[in-house]
Specification:
This protein is of the alpha/beta class. The chain has 2 domains: 174 residues, 3-Layer(aba) Sandwich (Rossmann fold), CATH 3.40.50.1950; 219 residues, Rossmann fold (3-Layer(aba) Sandwich), CATH 3.40.50.10300. It contains 13 helices and 19 strands. The longest helix has 16 residues. The radius of gyration is 24 Å and the shape is globular. It starts with a strand and ends in a 5-residue tail after the last helix. It comes from Citricoccus muralis. Keywords: Decarboxylase, Flavoprotein, FMN, Ligase, Lyase, Magnesium, Metal-binding, Multifunctional enzyme. GO terms for molecular function: phosphopantothenate--cysteine ligase activity; phosphopantothenoylcysteine decarboxylase activity.
């Protein structure tokens, strides 16, 4: 695959070198096209050494090859990382002041853009309008991650990790040109809320109790539901992956925040899919300062209390007349022991929670959490025969969404 990697002038440009390495080590031909400002952060020798190709910046370089047209025409994939606010604005306006701008105007292949900037710049209405414009033209714009920015600042605007950008870019290339069929719109007109990731419960200002959830399953479910025609909202706790491009996303951290978001976002929705890994316990008391090691070598005693039961609360409030989804899908990440199997515990959970469907998988250090493949069993409250599926989390998510469609209307899938 021939890839153009565009790099614009942001401090996160150094991460693009890691992205380039992933592309070349996967066997692809990569032509790096930096802007002049990008070279102020990472010089041309770095890009040339990692790509094995000469770097061009100006439209009038390599004129004999008609570079400003040829690069875009010949590319199988264009990836811009990082993309500054200024770059987004120029691209939305269709400007081409340099070689990279010309590449975007001539490319007919998937264009993936990974923005990175300070929080205020990302949230500025002008930037959000530019992103909406680019997405409306078919460009794939990732939402930035939330985390440490330049200096001491933190918040949304951080460039996603190179692994996440590369994974998203490959998915965008693989799906390019696939025409939807009538069977892919069976959730058209439906509103679906999906939770993903793992909740974190603060222990002190710097530590927390959490779990190993990567968020992969939840994000793939959100993506599959959207591909089936649904209007999707993703409620994202801590995740190792980026939220799917173009899906409304609400960020949460604790279980209490997740419960509030679920009850608010699910009001009036058709389906709630609770794929998030919810912490069962939190510290009964939150330390107001960082807990210190004692000089005598003793360890602190931490008293835990149970967190809110998000799934059961949603079901209960729905059954009590609240305008919450008629179809609620729970997830059970279980381990078996001498007292019962994974399915034994899952069946008990289904009866206890009262949701319509329960997706069950066995977990452990090397199972499900963070892995690309999974195996699930779907249990039904009405006693219908269990359904199993295995494969990539993408494929399994498509199957789960099909089962959701069948529950809503057996004749549509």
């Amino acid at each position: 695959m021939r890839i153009v990697l565009g790099v614009t002038g942001g401090i996160a440009a150094y991460k693009a070198a890691l992205l380039l390495r992933q592309m070349t080590e996967s066997g692809h031909e990569v032509q790096v096209v930096p802007t002049e400002n990008a070279l102020r952060f990472v010089g041309a020798p770095t890009w040339e050494a990692l790509s094995g190709r000469r770097v061009h910046v100006d439209t009038f370089e390599a004129v004999e090859k008609v570079n400003h047209v040829a690069l875009g025409r010949q590319a199988d994939l264009v990836v811009i990382a990082p993309a500054t606010a200024d770059f987004l604005a120029r691209t939305a306006a269709g400007l081409a002041p340099d070689l990279l701008g010309n590449v975007l105007l001539t490319a007919t292949t998937p264009i993936v853009i990974a923005p990175a900037m300070h929080t205020e710049m990302w949230l500025n209405p002008a930037t959000q309008a530019n992103v909406a414009t680019l997405r409306s033209r078919g460009m794939h714009v990732l939402d930035p991650d939330s985390g440490r920015l330049t200096g001491t600042d933190t918040g949304p605007g951080r460039l996603p990790e190179p692994e996440a950008i590369w994974e998203f870019a490959q998915q965008s290339h693989a799906s390019h040109g696939t025409a939807p069929t009538p069977s892919t719109s069976f959730l058209a007109g439906r509103r679906v809320v999906v939770t993903a990731g793992g909740t974190r419960e603060a222990l002190d200002p710097v530590r927390y109790l959490g779990n190993r959830s990567s968020g992969k399953q939840g994000t793939e479910l959100a993506r599959a539901a959207r591909q089936a025609g649904a209007d999707v909202t993703l409620i994202a706790a801590a995740m190792d992956v980026s939220a799917p491009e173009g899906i409304a996303t609400r960020r949460v951290e604790s279980t209490r925040e997740l419960l509030d978001a679920v009850l608010e976002e699910s009001t009036g929705a058709d389906v709630l899919v609770m794929a998030a890994a919810v912490a069962d316990f939190r510290p009964a008391q939150l330390a107001t300062s960082k807990m210190k090691k004692s000089d005598d070598g003793s360890s602190p005693t931490i008293v835990l209390e149970r967190t809110e039961d998000v799934l059961a609360t949603a079901v209960q409030q729905r059954d009590n007349g609240e305008n919450l989804p008629g179809l609620i899908v729970g997830f059970a990440a279980e381990t078996g022991d001498e007292s019962g199997s994974v399915l034994d515990y899952a069946q008990a959970k289904l009866e206890r929670k009262g949701c319509e469907m329960l997706v069950v998988n066995q977990v452990g250090r090397d199972q499900v959490f963070g892995q690309d493949d999974t195996e699930i069993t779907v249990l039904y409250r009405d006693g219908a025969a269990p359904v199993t599926a295995h494969g990539s989390k993408t494929d399994v998510s498509v199957r789960i969404v099909e089962l959701i469609g069948q529950e809503l209307d057996p004749d549509t899938v």
